Every structure is written in C-alpha cells, then in structure tokens.
Amino acid sequence: MNLIYYKSKKGNFGDDLNPFIWEKILGNLDNYPADLDFVGIGSILDERLEKSANKKIIFGSGVRDFLYNSENLDIIKEVSFVRGPISKKVTGLDYITDTAYALALTGEHQHYLNTKKKHKVSYIPYFEQAEGLNWDLFKTMTGYNVILPTQNIEIVLEEIAASECIITSAMHGAIVADIFRIPWLRLKFMKQGHEPSLTSELKWNDWMQSVNIKNPSEIYSDLTILAKSSKLTDIIKILLLKRSFRYPRYNLSDNAVFESKISQIKKKIDILINYSK
Fold first, then answer.
1. Ranges for the Polysaccharide pyruvyl transferase domain (predicted)?
2. Of 182, 194, 234, 271, which sits most exposed with the smallest number of CB within 10 A?
C-alpha cells in the first residue's frame, strides 16, 4: 500500500504525522495490496491523485477548494471518509475529522498526556514562515516558547505536550494541541505564506466544523515585522502584539465530541486492517 501525503523539503510536522502515525497503527504497509493508495492526513484531495490509477482509500484527507471533482478516483467507500463537512460537500464522501486524531490511538498518546509542563505558552508558526523571521526577538519580547514545525516530528510533539497553552498559525498545531487536550488559539495572518487566504480558511473551517468548534477565538497579525529586524518601531509592534494575547479565550473541542471522533476513526481502522494480506 502506498502512503500518499505532501512531503515538504523543509519538513512540516503536520504532513510528517503520516508515516509517524500510520506505520504504528497499520503496521508494515507492504502487507497491504501494492495497487492500493492510502491518502492520509493533509489537504491533498485534488487532481494530483489522478496520476495513479490505483484504488484509493481516502482517510480523513481534505479538499483545498470547492471545485475538485473526485468522480475520476476509484475510491473504496467502505473505508473512506474526509476531514469535514466542506470536504464532504465537495466529494460526497462522509466525514469524521482530520485523522491526525488517530495519534490518540498510538501507544505514545498517554506519554504525551502525562508530559510535565515547562512552557506557559508556546507559539507554532506556519511551516512556510518558519525560516527568515527573527524568532529569537519574538521570544525575547513576548516570553513565549517557539516551536518550529520544520523540526523533527518527535521534538515538535514533545514541545507541544510540554506546553500549557498553544498559540498557532499551523492548523495541525491546533489539532495536535486538541488531541493532547491543551487549549489552543489561532494566530491568523493576512497572508499564509504562499497559500491563498481562502484555502487556509477553508482548511481550518473544514476541520473546526468537524469537531463542532463554533465561533472560535482568533488573533490577527502580520509577523513580517520579525523579518530579521530589531528596529525600535518593530519591537514596539511586537509588544503590542503580545498585548493582544493578554486575555485570550482559548479553544478546545468538547470531550464527548473528541471521544466520539476517536471511536469513529478506530472503527474505520479496524475495517482497513482487514485489507492486509
């Protein structure tokens, strides 16, 4: 079975959750049919999947826009589901949620829940903004720990688990915080790297709606002031940014919703394992 996900040259822990989770839960992927594509975590439901004629298992993936037509894909619907209601509307497949939540089904999950807290607040930038910005200045002026999503995935997970609260511009930073039952807050940029703001909003809302998070608290900012600058005017802007964080209303999915989603994913995994040789 072929694990299909986006592979960033820089590294991006949200995408890198795929081999980390699925090899633990599904075992050796070579034990599954070779002509089967497993489309996992990420917003990768688009025409690129049509390059392979293999049968597809769509396992919690999401769309990037409202235009993609998945009718050309040979999808095994018994096992397949998408990330959220927006992806369902586009593809016609049922939704559960983003399958990064399967992290809760791994043996490591309890370790992360029990990790001793060492950071009051940690900030996770979007992976395309991890380089080129002065994060040392940000840490000095705000007092917040910074978790770069381009680091080794185990380091990122440990750092998230060691945080009391998470502020994040990376969607999977919020998702993993939610899995670890850590309150999280989105820091929204006017532009999310090279990604159109509409795409970013679609992805976030697709996921948040899937776990019944309504009217989420958010912060808006433009962190280009961190572009390796130490000018006094930029330092003042950073201090003003921290002031906007002063009394945040953090988000967290309801425990009952969380448990229900994990149970639904577990049932799909049990069906999927039957496809192994």
1. 17-185
2. 194
Q: Can you read off the two tokens belonging to residue 167?
A: 């502020």
Distance CA 199, CA 223 (A): 19
The backbone region for 161, taken as left when phi is positive above 0, alpha when psi lies in -120 to 50, beta otherwise, is: alpha
Q: What is the mean pLDDT of the chain?
A: 90
Query: What are the φ and ψ backbone dihedral angles of 146, each rounded to 5 degrees?
Result: -115, 130
Q: Is 52 exposed, middle or buried (CB count within 10 Å of its CB: 0-12, 13-18, 19+)?
A: middle
Selected from 1.10.1220, 1.10.246, 3.30.310, 3.40.50, the CATH number assigned to the domain covering 109-252 reads 3.40.50
Answer whether 65's CB lies under 8 Å from 86's CB: no
Per the document, the length of the chain is 277
